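Troubleshooting log. The previous structure file for this entry was overwritten by mistake, so regenerating from the original sequence record. Sequence copied from the archived sheet and checked twice against the printout by T.R.
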Amino acid sequence: MSDETTLSYTPFVDQVIRYPHLQFYAASPDEALQRFGPRATPQRMFDMDLGIIETCQKRSGTAIDFAEFIRENAQKRPLFHTALHPNGEITARMVRSFASQIPNADDFAISCAERYLERNEGINSSTYHPVRKDVLEALGFDWGAEYELYRQLLDRRSSGDWGGIIDNQAVYAEKFGNDTWCWLALTQAHTAIGSMSEAKICLSRLLDLNPGHVHSWLHGLNLFLKHNDHDGISALIHRARAFFRGQRIFSQMMAYFCLNTGKAVEAEPFARDYHARTPDRADALVPLLKTLTFLSRHEEIRQIVNFEVSVASPSRMAEIRANFNGSPELEEYLPAE
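Regenerated output below.
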């Protein structure tokens, strides 16, 4: 279903099942502030989050009390990667909630899935971690020494302390072996210092954990480009083609692959395919417009951006600006805010 451009899948399914809306803005204060204003303190957001979850779980009819689970356990350990990306513990409970609505569901199979998911990271293609210490203090949360070790890992990645990451690889892999950002940091560290064989192992684990995120593949491309490994690039493309099987994200990935290897002409059909098949996402504009920039087709860029701006709602316009952020060659085509 990820390859459909419609946001409603109802005509394609046998039965509609429901689950509660789960959110945790308390631990992402910058986004809460942007969405709700200066009164959105972490504690107030936490209370509101739980209230919304309680209301939604009643409406969904789930037999699982997600709000109470979060209330009891959020103080002890992180349960969300972002406001709407739960970890494996909550994901496992969501699967149980789904299964309870399906007639004659195999309870043993569901229990096995739950146990597997509980040990893994859940949905984590992007993250607000590490949560700031002052936010945890404001909430009265204590996530323990292991979270401080995780904070250290992410801080070292942010600062480019690749030696520090590699020196602590064994403990990071032991503690966070099911975490995307652990293997991303290790891949980047080994890429930076030139340990190619270790970088390939870490990249493979990263792609096992997070193959649906285009940036995982782009980090792989960066590894092989840095070491001029054309066979590695070919193998990476082959792996992506086998995984995506013609889905639109493969075209997105290939557009960036071609652009990053200086092949703008080859990038264009991929960029156009992703743009045509992805009208619901503003990020589909970026590879196409970057390709046209490389090809010096500025008037075409202007026409596309002007049309998008003319029909964009305020939320869509915000999404466009967010996707253009950091690309001054695209931002210059946008009207002033």
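The longest strand covers residues 80-82. Archived copy saved in two places this time.
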